[in-house]
Amino acid sequence: MNNQPSVPTLDDVARSAGVSTATVSRCLNSPERVVEKTRKRVMRAVEELGYTPNFGARVMAAKRTFTIGAIIPTMENAIFARGLQAFQEALHARGYTLLVASSAYQPKIEEEQIKALVARGADGLLLIGQDRDPAVYDYLRARSVPVLSAWVYMAGGDQPTVGFDNRRSMRALAQQVIDFGHRRIGMISGITQGNDRAAERVAGLRDAMHDNGLDADQVPIIETPYEIENGAVAFQSLMDAPSPPSVVMCGNDVLAVGALRGAREMGLSVPEDVSITGFDDIELARIVTPQITTVHVPHREMGRKAAEALIDMVEKRSAGASVELTASLQIRDSLKDLRAKP
Amino acid sequence: MNNQPSVPTLDDVARSAGVSTATVSRCLNSPERVVEKTRKRVMRAVEELGYTPNFGARVMAAKRTFTIGAIIPTMENAIFARGLQAFQEALHARGYTLLVASSAYQPKIEEEQIKALVARGADGLLLIGQDRDPAVYDYLRARSVPVLSAWVYMAGGDQPTVGFDNRRSMRALAQQVIDFGHRRIGMISGITQGNDRAAERVAGLRDAMHDNGLDADQVPIIETPYEIENGAVAFQSLMDAPSPPSVVMCGNDVLAVGALRGAREMGLSVPEDVSITGFDDIELARIVTPQITTVHVPHREMGRKAAEALIDMVEKRSAGASVELTASLQIRDSLKDLRAKP
DNA sequence: GGATTGAATGTAAGCGCTTACACTAAACGT
DNA sequence: ACGTTTAGTGTAAGCGCTTACATTCAATCC
């Protein structure tokens, strides 16, 4: 007796329905090409046997998987969660399955994951940001796997992008901060190495300083991985300086929340003693007290548009067009207007 | 001229290295069985051609993928993030790749995702909770795909579990609440339908009421999806009752944070006017003010242990043993001790 | 009524890989 | 010196599916 629970194959279905494997395959993939009577018989056999197509075999024969892969730097905090959820929903609506992997912000791991996903037959890939080893893009091109970069917008590049201009957005926020009368500005940034979003945000702050005739080079900037605790530590070291900043601008909301905690631990109150700003406008920013002034990123819209663009690339084999979204300022309590009368 | 960038295959490598495909395959899968000289030659050819094995073909021929699938209810909030991250790290260390999909708490979608992952050759599956259509387990058994349920611990069941006893944990928390002198208890729970964790937590509260001779049936319980906004709404409707509770126990931290916001909007201060408790001890719980009293779940340990157990099942084809972890109380500011002198 | 057409179905050739088995030649034992 | 072993490699049979092409047969046309 064979107790290996053996999985039914196309052959089994064909035999049980009394047709050829080709007919079964057609029933499943282009039902309109087979006459109703046969189709019903086949479908019944499929039901009875509990048949599910073998994916590997299908991929090998058909070269299409209806699978999209996404690699995000981290799942630990909510930065990418909302956008990814929207991305997934949009894909699902179009009949695609999303597979997610995370890279822990490490290029090496990201490359591994890219290969894993491509090997598994991903029809297209969503990556975060654009700044990576050109060899990666060569690899993808050689296999003609479409890639889309999200969370950034870069018009000129080789790769299509769906996102917003990180630099311009941070510049706008910084302009607002300066308009509010702040001159001593400090920054806590994510690690800029290999992270174009982080780098652009720093550049945006520098731009704004220039625009207002301030010396961008003397802004104290601390780079640290995106984690709350790191934000707290960086904040305290910024505030320990001889002439501490009146505002600490953070590379994202996670760091800003950390900064807020740091302030509390030091007994400083926000925004009375020091202002704090964030970036991304994730839920966190409105949960803490005071609520954090930040740049609102249209996460859901970005996810949705990215899905559309990527499917377009996959199905039409087109080069793909970049989509620019607008990120807007969200002025909340954590930023003090120094010009206002008390 | 052929401008289809054609992907190199095993054959190409074999030809280029002047060996047979079998040798190339062996170089890749069990290098010790090939003499060094040949191996080097082959590896060079692999490098030069930029060869990556075709996954579908490999699966079909070898029936192993070194891929583990996980399906979590949601990526939108951080409930599963930390545990999943640890799970992924542990898998990675053992040479496995993790593929994640989310079900939006919908059994139908979960089933689809399970099929998608199995079809894609997942060697094993991690699911959250245990409460699902038996047909799902039959399907998995028929294909001999090992499944492990996490975030719950149930000794008796058919499936191995790695997690903690949700019911007992909530009972302990409720006991503490009662010991602090609270008698009018309200609860905001997640949707218990199809979510055993949520159901067990409610049961745990009931247990504690019983233990203390209180009437469990008159506890007002509102069920609502795990979202901050829902927590706020539910809280307000609980507090609008003629004799509002002195403590609102929430099914998780997300709802608790929502409740906190609800309180703030109503002008109630926590814990002076009303106490709030959560569950899970995600980062959120310590970020808000006041910090939330909750049940600490050892997420990372759970992820790690789950990875070990699942790999064990996959490799040894064993039935898999359940692992029970301990969840501990985290008493923080959001819970007031009514016995304490002011 | 026979030729033509076209819809429905069948036949069979791969897709790229792994691996049981076959083969070769060098190393060993007696 | 000659069988026997063994390590290294090659041969070829699938794995389960899709699809180009072949076949069948009934409907249609002149």
Question: What would a concise description of this structure say?
Answer:
The structure is a homodimer of 342-residue chains. By secondary structure, chain A is α/β, with parallel strands linked by helices.
Model description:
Two copies of one chain form a homodimer. With 342 residues, chain A is an alpha/beta fold. Chain A has three domains: 10-53, lambda repressor-like DNA-binding domains (434 Repressor (Amino-terminal Domain)); 67-164 and 299-326, 3-Layer(aba) Sandwich (Rossmann fold); 166-297, 3-Layer(aba) Sandwich (Rossmann fold), CATH 3.40.50. Chain A has 13 helices and twelve strands. In chain A, strand 8, helix 11 and strand 9 form a beta-alpha-beta unit. The mean pLDDT of chain A is 91. At the A-B interface, helix 4, helix 5, strand 2, helix 6 and helix 7 of A face helix 4, helix 5, strand 2, helix 6 and helix 7 of B. Chain A binds a DNA duplex (30 and 30 nucleotides) through residues 9-11, 19-23, 25-26, 29, 33-35, 38, 53-54, 56-63.
Mean pLDDT figure of chain A: 91
Strand content of chain A: 5-15%
Shape of chain A: elongated
User: Largest beta sheet of chain A: what is the strand line-up?
Assistant: 2-1-3-4-5-11
**Which structural class is indicated by helix and strand composition of chain A?**
alpha/beta
> What is the annotated CATH architecture of the largest domain in chain A?
3-Layer(aba) Sandwich
Distance between the termini of chain A: 87 Å
Number of strands of chain A: 12
The protein's oligomeric status is homodimer
> Unreliable stretches of chain A, pLDDT < 50, 5 or more residues?
none
Whole-number radius of gyration of chain A?
A: 26 Å
User: Count of helices of chain A?
Assistant: 13
Largest sheet of chain A: 6 strands, parallel
- Compressed to H and E, one letter per element, the order of chain A equals HHHHEHEHEHEEHEHEHEHEHEHEE
Classify the helix fraction of chain A into a percent range: 40-55%
